[in-house]
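hey can u check if this looks right to u? its 251 residues, i copy pasted from the old doc so theres a chance i mangled smth
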Amino acid sequence: MITKINYEDNTYVIDFDSGIDLSINSRFNGESPMFYGSQQPTANPQISDGFIGDLKKGGSCNVPVVSLNVHCTGTHTESISHVFDSNDMITDACPRNFIPACIISVEPEKASLINETYHFDMSNDMVISKQALEQKLDKSYDAMIIRTHPNDISKISRNYDDHPAPFFTNDAMEYINQLKVKHLLVDMPSVDKADDGGLLGNHKIFFKQGRTISELLYVPNELLDGFGFLQIQIPNWNLDSAPSRPIFYPV
């Protein structure tokens, strides 16, 4: 299927078959990414009154009962109600239409070697700096997708408690705000340090009504940096967040 999008006096042709999935496939075999001491997602058959929801065990159909930690075991999108007492649920904040977006790739830096700030000790951490973003951006869009290097495939099953991820400096997050980004997508488990004293400072810098943050993406290496259009697919959950499937259409 083909559609046309008019954006900034240009007409773009989008082939729905050309979309690139930026989500990590939800798996229930112990190979999902993990963060913040979470357990692996599970899917077990419903068992009740002589019924078992598993064809392999003699059931008439498969009826899996799923347990997962939305924020810590896979690609997800969150709203302001993740960190503030708000009635703005993820279905209110996540747009249904195509979003003008750009992909950029950045190299995390040792925090001790840069002159930027964070609301918690970061002296031994790797961070994404404002300067790194400035070097990559010549224009802002409603959505920004950030790929960190190195970008090996182990990200799709990494235990981030054993391999701490980089995060943004406060300066970098303030810069993203200045660019008026509405939808921030990253391949890290969090825009904040895993333990920032419970402050979630970068989340609180960024979040306003109608904004979203998507975390734990995987942006394939074959997808080049640049402009395109984005869809963020989510289930209709009345929660602060939901598992998501960002689809990027390069143009």
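The two ends are 15 Å apart (CA to CA).
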